[in-house]
């Protein structure tokens, strides 16, 4: 039998031992959890927006388009929403839809996490459009645009250049940096409706190609390769087709990375001014 003082000392030592073992076990569990926490943080960081892009393409792009600008008055790539006035409103619109419109509720299709990831992707998409950073030097890009790039042979900026191709005076206000770069490297990848080209054949076998300006039930108006405005009656045409290829050449391999960055920077700088 252990005497009183020795028994008290023995119990205290055992209590301290059990406490130390508990602390050690807690530390081991905490250390083991660190890799899992790090993985979760990484996934909810840059990966969250990437997952949001995948979810957007699968669920939203069929109506809104891959760049989010297929519906009038809505342009996700430039942060233009009809009903959402802040980032906090976006998840609720996705979740609940918009009664009286074609926007359905996704509360039964997507989880809360998936909805937040789509909202994160839209936030990043709009942020990229508002960014003033550009990959090169706009002054050098202007020299390329007006010189070796031969862009003025088709395009116009303010009072200089041709009207054969789209006017680029304010292109930096309506197109994102990534879209401008893609249009230089892959001009056939996306042709906007307002930039479509057509080919017509008249009854006397004259072929005319040009950029479509307007059309109605009876006529088609275009500007041809000599910058002439042409208005033609559809009933007098043998053939009238939209061209699925852009007449713009690709600059892939024509410009080195620095020159490409400079040219994109110049295009980004072409924005609407308050004086207009």
Helix content: 40-55%
Give a quick account of the main beta sheet: strands, pairing sense, barrel closure: 5 strands, antiparallel
Q: Strand order across the biggest sheet?
A: 6-5-4-3-7
Radius of gyration: 30 Å
Low-pLDDT stretches are: 26-45
Could you say which overall geometry the principal axes of the C-alpha atoms support?
A: globular
Total count of helical runs of at least 4 residues: 9
For the termini, the CA-CA separation is 101 Å
Question: Into which percentage range does the β-strand content fall?
Answer: 5-15%
Number of strands: 7
Oligomer: single chain
Write the element-wise H/E pattern from the N-terminal end onward.
Answer: HHHHHHEEHHEEEEEH
Mean of pLDDT: 80
Structural classification: alpha+beta
Structural summary, described in words:
There is one protein chain. This protein is α+β, with helices and mostly antiparallel strands and 276 residues long. It has helices at residues 4-43, 46-59, 61-64, 89-96, 112-130, 138-146, 171-174, 177-185, 257-269; strands at residues 156-157, 160-161, 197-202, 207-215, 219-224, 229-233, 237-242. It has a five-stranded antiparallel beta sheet with strand order 6-5-4-3-7, with no helix packed on it. A two-stranded antiparallel ribbon has the order 1-2. β3 (197-202) and β4 form a beta hairpin. α2 (46-59) packs across α5 (112-130) and α4 (89-96) packs across α5.
Summarize the structure.
With 276 residues, the protein is α+β, with helices and mostly antiparallel strands.
Core attributes:
single chain, 276 residues, alpha+beta, five-stranded antiparallel β-sheet, two-stranded antiparallel ribbon, 9 helices, 43% helix, globular
